[in-house]
Amino acid sequence: MHAAERERLIVEAIGPTGFVSYRDLEAMLDASPATIRRDLSRLESEGRIVRVHGGARLADGAEAPARPVGFHLSGTPFEQAITENLAAKQAIGRAAAALCQPGEGIMLDGGTTTLQMCPHLAGLDLQVLTNSLYIVNALLPQPGTRILVPSGAVFREQNIILAAAGEESMPRFHAPKLFMGAASVGAAGVMQADVVLVAAERRLIDRAEQVILLVDSSKFTTRSGTIVCGLDEVDTLITDAGIPAAAAAAIRDAGVQLVIAE
User: Fold this and answer.
1) What is the distance between the alpha carbons of residues 21 and 146, in angstroms, rounded to a whole number?
2) Where is the HTH deoR-type domain (predicted)?
3) CA-CA distances (angstroms) from residue 217 to 74, 191, 207, 223?
4) Which of 223, 219, 215 is nearest to 260 (CA)?
5) Which of 124, 159, 172, 259 is geometrically suited to a Cys-Cys bond with 238, CB 3.0 to 4.6 A?
6) What are the Cα distances from residue 254, in Å, to 59, 98, 190, 248?
7) Are strands 105-108 and 175-180 parallel, antiparallel or unpaired?
8) Cβ–Cβ < 8 Å for 163, 169
9) Along the 262 residues of the chain, how does pLDDT read in single tens digits?
């Protein structure tokens, strides 16, 4: 990633709150701490930011890309994505739900594949933390399922609740398992199309004992994105039989348990 792209992402991550933490920057940028410090020094010398304890804020008079309520996230709209590779996503969701134990707490990141877990969670009496209003609606008819949501702005196109980077928005919740999706997966790791999604998913990863990635085989491409985490942070990856052989080998070589849903 070039310096100009990193600087754009830094300023974008500051968002409407006017602040981003070093921790969030290290999570969302494919760069060393020393490189990030140099990027921040350049931005500060240009008068765009001011480095403060724990992170950086906008300089007085500087403008950041606005992230108002209803702002459209980068990537495919949910209503379009939900119809793509649906049979594979349903099989993946069913296989993922089979990993849940009765009465445990789990986290479900918003996505069209994690949504497919919901019909198979009935009767397990789970406690579920999710940032997806689609998932909330799918779980509401299940009387034994307790639902928690974070605070933040509702992004209508994805029906997801997100807070800006550096803003603490999650309930005090720790879970054995996090189920999450991705825009793409490659040698560089797990990627998303929008930097705000990266910051939100890092908060979830930090609260989980196991990270379980749900992606259909179309996500193993050369598409670029902002890195959420490396493959070394993923415990289990569930996909369909269409995964390329080279990708399957790379996943296993990284020490990730690979599950092929049928």
Assistant:
1) 31
2) 3-58
3) 21, 14, 27, 13
4) 215
5) 259
6) 41, 24, 13, 10
7) parallel
8) yes
9) 678 778 878 887 776 556 777 877 877 776 788 898 899 998 889 888 888 877 888 887 666 554 444 444 555 555 666 678 899 999 999 999 999 999 999 999 988 999 999 999 999 999 999 989 999 999 999 999 999 998 777 776 667 777 654 445 555 677 889 999 998 998 888 988 777 677 778 888 888 899 999 999 999 976 667 788 889 999 999 999 999 999 999 999 999 999 999 8
108: number of CA atoms within 13 Å, CB side? 33
The Cβ-side half-sphere exposure at 190, using a 13 Å CA radius, reads: 27
Tokens of 255: 């020490």
* Residue 111 phi, psi (nearest 5): 175, 165
Class of domain 3-58: mainly alpha
- Residues 259/189/202/166 CA torsion (nearest 10 deg): -170
Measured from the Cβ of residue 23, the count of other Cβ atoms closer than 10 Å reads 16
Domain ranges in the chain are 3-58, 78-261
CA distance 236 to 251: 9
* Per-residue buried b or exposed e for 121-153, using 16+ beta carbons within 10 Å of the residue's own CB: beebebebbbbbbbbbebbeebeebebbbbebb
Which pLDDT score is estimated for 92? 97
